[in-house]
Amino acid sequence: MIALGSFIGFFVVQLPVIAVLVGGLVVLASPQRRLPGRSQTLARAGLVVLLSQALASVAWNITFTQIIGRSGWSAAQFGLISSVVGLMLAVVFAGGLGLLVGAFAILRAESARSPGGDH
């Protein structure tokens, strides 16, 4: 069983990121702050993907600590597992950022096409 201190340590490291992502979702949910068109959907999807990645990272850190403590694996095996999971988390993170960038690119394009948009 993982020590409570370790769990809190893993969670506290990600807490600012989780708070910002949840805050972003709350802001996007308010009627005054809604983005037009597809940019709203992409922005929400990006924030949800990034939030999922942050929570998965906490879960992975806790799980990895448990694996190290209970298995007889070699350092090379630990390194391989850590690299594979790290790569998957990085791909998810990049996907979330890509969705956010897409949301703002579409927003910019939509505002440029609208009659009152910036030119």
From TrEMBL:
TM region(s), chain numbering? 6-29, 41-60, 80-107
Transmembrane found in the keyword field: yes
Sorted alphabetically, the keyword list is: Membrane, Transmembrane, Transmembrane helix
Out of the domains of life, which is the source?
A: Bacteria
The name of this protein is Uncharacterized protein
